[in-house]
Amino acid sequence: MTENGEGSAPKKYKVGVEAALEVMGGKWKPLIIYHLTTGCKRSSELRRLIPEITQKMLTTQLRGLEKDEIVQRKVYSEVPPKVEYELTDYGWGLKPALDLLCYWGEEHLDKVYGDRFKVLEEFDASEKR
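Structure tokens predicted for DNA-binding HxlR family transcriptional regulator:
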């Protein structure tokens, strides 16, 4: 959760959306969360689903989401080590908001391009494990 630090007064927000965007805003976090709504993913799976993100940025974003208790990291004691990421119960609370953003985005693409499928890539259902 976002805090100012030990002993300091809690940060003040003008509207709740500020707090939400502080946790899940930016270019990558909503995409990571969206892909985790389809199930546990390894870092390599997320990189395949979001090819534009660098490994360093993915790691940074996952750590931030983990710190804010949106994502949990599961480490398996295997050789080589296996790590998976999944949404926490708290993180699942973001799904309705992401669904609405997705629907709005599709309507926006229809408005701007006349047909969203001119610019919206087909999502491969086999990756939706």
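Residues 102 and 115 are 15 Å apart (CA to CA).
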